[in-house]
Specification:
Elements: H1 4-19, E1 27-29, E2 36-39, E3 44-54, H2 66-82, E4 87-97, H3 103-120, E5 123-131, E6 137-147, E7 162-166, H4 171-189, H5 202-209, H6 215-223, E8 230-233, H7 238-249, E9 252-256, H8 264-273, H9 277-283, E10 290-294, H10 296-303, E11 309-316, E12 322-325, E13 331-334
Parallel strand pairs: 4-5, 9-12
Antiparallel strand pairs: 1-2, 2-3, 3-6, 4-6, 7-10, 7-11, 8-10, 9-11, 12-13
Helix pairs in contact: 2-3, 4-5, 4-8
């Protein structure tokens, strides 16, 4: 079963989509995918998406410096454009700022935003600044472009196609658990000068604090003439995000537990926490890897030129059902 919060979120989004009755001829696709799609000309679509990060919910300033917060907010937004097989062009940044946040802190935030914009080759083009009573709030709206012939939606997967994912899964959640453990120790000891040695967790901590949108994979798709049939980014967790593809495509999935790409540091953290590492891979969010489906012929073509992805299963005709073959050969079934 999915976490209750995910079920509630999906239901709320459906109600929001149903409440909007007026339609514009210029909107090709609205609520339901990683980005809204607007008509531009005969060969190109405009993509628009946004991400909001709220202090105390999506981030903790105890262990997330302002420059890393800025970079992370941009990466989260750009990842939605990558998930549509598009290219980011410009961003707007809106801030809700409480009195305790100084202008110097805001300057550090924009250093991180600027570095991320350089990495993704998109321009900071404006935004808004307002006050906030308590939490610091960052919203990044990103504008991108996609060719009509190569845009990819989170629907379109077909039976027997391979299910692929870039990078590794669960690392961001593992990094968050390490940081929260260190914060708890700091609060309990009261040692304000404590500087924890996180070198043995450097990979997963980096995955949590400064994730990267997979623009490099989108570039590889373009260079090697590969267009996924369906795609999304892993922002909520592999299982919830895979179910979005299945819901949009009207199909099911069969995945292999042994094939889930999990880094050794993620396994180490799960062992220390006495938790199942597969739950990190299945439900851990904020990895911002790309989850996509391809015909086997295209998988082979991509594999010849790009090694940073893993085949984790295949699409089936069991609508809405995810089956997972465990390491013991048993079949675990996930339904809404």
């Amino acid at each position: 079963m999915p976490p209750a919060s995910e079920s509630s979120r999906s239901g709320l989004l459906r109600r929001i989509a149903a409440s909007s009755t007026w339609r514009s001829d210029e909107v090709f696709k609205g609520i339901g995918d990683d980005a809204a799609v607007l008509k531009k000309d005969g060969s190109t679509y405009i993509l628009i998406s946004s991400e909001t990060l709220v202090e105390g919910v999506e981030f903790d300033l105890t262990f997330l410096p302002f420059h890393q917060l800025g970079a992370k907010a941009v990466s989260a937004a750009v990842s939605d454009i990558c998930a549509m097989n598009g290219k980011p062009e410009a961003i707007l940044v809106n801030l809700g700022v409480p009195n305790r946040v100084t202008s110097e802190m805001i300057g550090e935030l924009y250093k991180g935003i600027s570095m991320a914009c350089t990495d993704y080759q998109c321009q900071l083009a404006g935004g808004d600044l307002t006050g906030s009573h308590h939490a610091f709030i960052v919203t990044v709206t990103v504008y991108g472009l996609a060719d009509k012939k190569s845009i990819v939606f989170n629907s379109g997967a077909k039976k027997d196609q391979a299910i692929c994912v870039t990078g590794d899964l669960g690392g961001a959640l593992a990094g968050l658990k390490v940081l929260l453990r260190e914060k708890k120790h700091w609060e309990e000891t009261g040692d304000t000068a404590m500087q924890p040695d996180l070198s043995e967790y450097d990979f997963v901590v980096k995955k949590q604090l400064i994730p990267m949108a997979r623009k490099d994979i989108v570039t590889a798709f373009r260079q090697h003439n590969v267009i996924p049939s369906a795609m999304t980014d892993v922002s909520k967790g592999l299982l919830p995000d895979l179910k979005r593809i299945l819901a949009g495509s009207g199909c099911g999935a069969y995945i292999y537990q042994a094939a889930l790409p999990v880094d050794l540091q993620t396994r180490k953290v799960a062992d220390e926490m006495k938790e199942e590492v597969d739950l990190y891979a299945l439900y851990g969010g904020e990895d911002y890897e790309l989850l996509f489906t391809l015909d086997q012929e295209k998988v082979d073509q991509l594999a010849e030129n790009c090694r940073d992805f893993t085949i984790i299963g295949k699409i089936t005709d069991k609508k809405g059902v995810v089956e997972m073959q465990t390491d013991l050969g048993e079949i675990a079934e996930f339904r809404d």
